[in-house]
Amino acid sequence: MRLTVRSTRASVSLVAxxxxxxxxxxxxxxxxxxxxxxxxxxxxxxxxxxxxxxxVARGLQHPWDVQQATGGRLVVSERDRARISVVRKGKRRxxxxxxxxxxxxxxxxLMSLAVDPAARTLxxxxxxxxxxxxxxxxxxxxxxxxxRLSSRRTLLTGLPSTSGRHGGCRLLLDRDSDALxxxxxxxxxxxxxxxxxxxxxxVLRVHRRTGAPMPGNPFVGxxxxxxxxxxxxxRNVQGLAQRDDGSVWSVEHGSYRDDEVNRLVAGGDYGxxxxxxxxxxxxxxxxxxxxxxxxxxxxxxxxxxxxxxxAWVRGSQWGxxxxxxxxxxxxxxxxxxxxxxxxxxxxxxxxxPRLQRLGRLRSITSARDGDLLVTxxxxxxxxxxxxxxx
Length: 390
Prior knowledge:
Neuraminidase, 4-stranded antiparallel β-sheet, 2 helices, 24 strands
């Protein structure tokens, strides 16, 4: 199969951009990144909303993900407790205790969820100690009242893990096909990201029901693990989000520098190659490698802020923030609203102070009404909050 791999070569660091907004829900107050952006600042600022933050679930510990089900229900995973909860009208109940199934170590445990309410199906990415420590994707059926899981199936297995470091795993249901996208960490093994037969440091595409490699995968004809690979050369993928134009974007942790937001291109190499050993002084996107590497659409520079989950902001009620990519930060304890043009170039970053008071933030999900669901990850008294424009 012929591959088309393009290099965007348009990476913009947070420091270089100089557009860190300081108004609640407002636009950047620093110099705009382009003349075109400058022409629209006044109009956008007038339409930017104030933000309302409401707690919808309390008493959680390291909640990794939150997704919507039916009837106003939210489904929440907790990494170390290996517990899936259903939250409705402020009340939490346990949907499943997976502690006998899930291997918990360091950054690895019960992580990302994907939910198809219409099919009453739930997917989870989690550590597993069965057959040696690794990360896998499991699928369940859910009963009509969202009180019980059944018919578990292992959809994908063998995602590498060692100590649990860089075991990150993010799931995303493709809107335009039956694909389930799986973003993985490199397990802190330097050879994994560019080894096409390792599932670590990749974004994978599998059929959401059968676990088979998706037609159209760059290496789908292979007999080895590379048939699942969509993109490679990643360090630790933490977020996946699909734009209205169908493009898929990833968010990943940098080393001591350069957290990244990437626009994914089939067969793309994103340039992380920390060898020999695990040399974290190398660039996140190493343009000296053979072939062509995809530059990040955004990078943090130094220091990192530990970018995590992400969601595209939808709905005219968001004013100037509509159409931005909302990215959560753990170490940075904030949400960054990034605006990219149609070509994928960064034009502005907004950082509302209202969302800098919640501590470490892990996941962001766009609710069906356009609100954002955000999980905190402070290790104690964590919660899920709903963020909406006033």
